[in-house]
Design brief:
Length: 297
């Protein structure tokens, strides 16, 4: 019988969970000896990131090649974990008996997590004891992930939350991630605030609806409105009006633009509406503001 080719641990694994953090993919694969049909080479495609290797069962040892260089991984106790830099091509010859859970963490996912939490970014992941690190949190999260796989929950919201929790734990425990600032209770997560304000700013003329903004942030409309005000100090409508006035101030410096044209460009209903809102926020009607700031540049 012809020998089987190398086994791609993340694309060929029969049991896998997939999720995203800030649009970046995270993938967990559960592989055991029964999946390979005997001793076989397994590999992970190179990527800008890292792989967590978590041997659930004892490992008698294995041969590993990193960028073509051979090393021998010694016998490992059950629940031992270590990290591999995926920027270097990785291949391993697995023994006749093994069970492993691998997790691919790209730098994009780690960066997105840091931005979400308002934390320092992770540039490396390193276990304290190369061949003897054991982590009860990883044990429990991997056990929950395997239970989700048995129930057919791969790709569900539960799977996404499990992966997010696992990546956050690894980034803090082994990557030195630290919160840079306290988060406001009840406010938007940084990625939600960034997404909402980007969407509002991109739609100064044709205002994005509250339901659209809430959907982009995966919140109900009422929850989104409350959280947005906690985070920015303004309601979405007031925030948008402030940005429209800011844009109008830039255009008012161009003497050739009429007030009506500026009102239309900045998303105001008409010149009268523009004058009223601008005066309330800027402290002077647009024509008067233009005269006061003539020659500022």
């Amino acid at each position: 019988m012809a020998s089987l080719g190398p086994f791609d641990v993340f694309t060929a694994a029969p049991r896998a969970l997939s999720g995203q953090i800030g649009g970046a993919d995270v993938r967990l694969a559960h592989v055991a000896d029964v999946d390979l049909g005997g001793e076989r080479l397994i590999y992970a495609e190179p990527a800008e990131g890292f792989m967590l290797v978590h041997h659930v069962q004892p490992l008698p040892g294995k041969d590993v090649w990193a960028d073509g260089k051979h090393r021998r991984v010694p016998a490992l106790a059950p629940s031992t974990l270590y990290f591999v830099d995926l920027r270097t091509p990785q291949t391993a010859r697995m023994p006749a008996r093994f069970e492993v859970v691998d997790l691919r963490l790209t730098l994009a996912a780690l960066d997105a997590l840091a931005d979400d939490l308002g934390a320092t970014r992770v540039t490396s992941l390193q276990e304290p004891d190369r061949w003897s690190t054991r982590d009860p949190v990883v044990d429990r999260l991997h056990a929950a992930a395997c239970q989700a796989l048995l129930r057919g929950d791969a790709g569900t919201l539960l799977a996404s939350h499990l992966l997010h929790a696992l990546v956050a734990h690894l980034a803090i425990a082994y990557g030195g991630m630290k919160l840079k600032r306290p988060r406001r209770t009840g406010g938007l997560a940084p990625w939600q605030q960034r997404r909402a304000t980007d969407l509002l700013f991109a739609n100064l003329v044709k205002e994005a609806s509250l339901s659209q903004l809430a959907q982009e942030c995966r919140l109900s409309a009422s929850h989104f409105s409350r959280a947005f005000k906690i985070s920015t100090g303004l309601s979405p409508q007031a925030w948008l009006q402030q940005r429209r006035v800011d844009r109008a101030k830039e255009l008012l410096r161009d003497e050739d633009l009429s007030l009506g044209a500026i009102a239309q460009t900045c998303g105001f209903a008409d010149q009268r509406h523009f004058t009223r809102i601008f005066g309330r926020i800027a402290g002077a009607p647009p024509a008067h503001w233009r005269r006061l700031h003539r020659g500022d540049d």
